[in-house]
Every structure is written in C-alpha cells, then in structure tokens.
Amino acid sequence: MFTDADSTVKGSLIWLLDRCKTAFGRRLLRRWVGRPLTDVDMLCARGDAVQALVDAGSHPVTLKIPSLLQGLPDLEKGLARMSYGRAEPTELATVLLSLNRIAFDIEPVDEPEDLGMPSSVLNDAVAALPKARSCVKAALDAISLKQARANEKTELFVDPDMYPELQDLKSQIAIYDVSRVAMQARPPAD
Asked: What crossing angle do the helices spanning 89-105 and 75-83 adopt, rounded to 10°?
C-alpha cells in the first residue's frame, strides 16, 4: 500500500494517489489510506469535502484555501512539538504567525452553514478558523517575536509576572553566572 514489492514508494498506491502540497496533507492522506473509513455517512461527507475542493471555482472560500495553505510551515508537526515542550522559540513564532494569518484570512460567520459551501465538513472546518483569533493573539502578545526569532529563550516572554517560576529560574541563572565569573577571577591556590 505504501511501498511496492521492492520497498520503494514509486509504483505503490500512495505514490499513485499522493498529489499533496503540504507535509501535513501527505500525512493525512497516508492515515486515510492506511485506516479507511467504514462509516458510509462519514465517507460521503469526506467525499463531498474533496469534491467541493476539486470544484473550487464554484465558491469564493474554496478559492481562498490553496492560498491559505501556500507556504505554510508544517503546522501539525509544530503544534505537536509545542504540546510535548520540544519546540524552539523560532518554531513557536513561525507557527503562531502562520495560525494568525490563517485565522484572520477568513471572515467570521454566525453559523458554519452561512459559508454556503456544499460540504458540511468544510463549512465546519473553515468556520472554526476565525474562532482561533483571540487565542492566537493572546499567545503572540505573550512573547517577543524579536527574541523568538533570535531563539532567545530567557527573554522570550514579555511579561515577567506572567510566569513567576520563570523569573525565579532566571534569577538562579544570574546567581550562577556571577559565582562562575567570581571563581574564574580568583587566583589558583598553591
């Protein structure tokens, strides 16, 4: 399914189907192929969503989706790294800025059906995007993008009172640095 008899991707089912433009799209396709749906209603809803994207010329929001995805970092990977505490500040800033762009590119609607796309799956997914605005803005406001881009972890957060334990750790680092410098300045004992 994912490789042919010679353990190469070329010639396999996934090679034939994969026309994904993003890494997270490619992973999603592999999951869909590896674990196909057995619920007919869910399968039809997914098929309607794919067809709506294929017929993108029929709706202004589906026309926007490719440009939204263009040039995005691997958001799924970045969010997973953040949830496990493995993301570097640069990755945090990149993901937050990308999420911010996506959240503000779609106008909010009262109900997902108000988008008027022929797919309830797409209506629900796209209608959820603007709802992330306040969360993403709060996260961006909490960090210094300049320090994040410089990968400077100790000065990443703009409000030191927001995380008092972080301030305690910075104080301990400063004490360590002062004592280390003092030890280096002392002449060696005979």
From this structure: 130
Indicate whether 64 and 29 sit together in one domain: no
Q: What is the pTM of this model?
A: 0.75
CB atoms within 10 A of CB 117: 23
Nearest to residue 29, comparing CAs of 45, 10, 41, 16?
Answer: 16
148 token code pair: 């994040």
What number of residues does the chain have?
Answer: 190
- Tens of pLDDT, residues 45-81: 999 888 888 887 678 888 888 788 878 899 999 999 9
CA distance 1 to 165: 50
Q: Tell me how many domains the chain contains.
A: 2
Domain membership flag for residue 166: no
Confidence check: pLDDT of 118 > 60: yes
Is residue 65 situated within a structural domain?
A: yes
| In-domain check, residue 99 | yes
Pick from 55, 43, 32, 29: which is nearest to 117 by CA? 55
Which run of H or of E encompasses 12? Answer: none
The residue range of the domain holding 130 is 40-159
Tell me the pLDDT of the chain averaged across its residues: 86
CB atoms within 10 A of CB 63: 11
